[in-house]
Design a protein that fits this description.
The protein has 2 helices and 2 strands. The radius of gyration is 13 Å and the shape is globular. It has a two-stranded antiparallel sheet. It has helices spanning about 35-40, 45-55, and strands spanning about 10-20, 20-30.
């Protein structure tokens, strides 16, 4: 989140973990638009950030892009 704060289009981020299982974590980030997210996703900043936490991961990251449901 600290690294993403400096990226245009970043709104907010949260780090959540499963209750009773601190080894299962989810990061949720909000972006102004999909283009901002895509810029971040392929950025050198993100690559470095992921490299720094890679040793903590039990498996490769799984990325799911969600959209706000407008009803």
């Amino acid at each position: 989140r600290k690294t993403a704060n400096s990226v245009d289009g970043f709104i907010a981020g949260e780090l959540l973990h499963e209750k009773g299982n601190p080894h299962h974590a989810i990061i949720i980030s909000s972006w102004e638009n999909n283009e901002s997210w895509e810029t971040w996703f392929v950025s050198e900043q993100r690559r470095v950030a992921l490299k720094n936490i890679h040793a903590l991961l039990e498996q490769d990251e799984k990325v799911i892009v969600l959209e706000v449901l407008k009803v």
